Amino acid sequence: MTCKKCKERGKDWNGDDPQCAFVGEFHENWNCATLNAIRDICHEGQDPMPPGVDYRYCDDQKYATIQIDGIHDSKGNWIGYALWVCWYKSRGRTEAVWVLDSDGPPRRPTEDELLSIIAAFRQPKARNATKGKL
Question: Fewer beta carbons within 10 Å, N or C terminal of the chain?
Answer without folding.
Answer: N
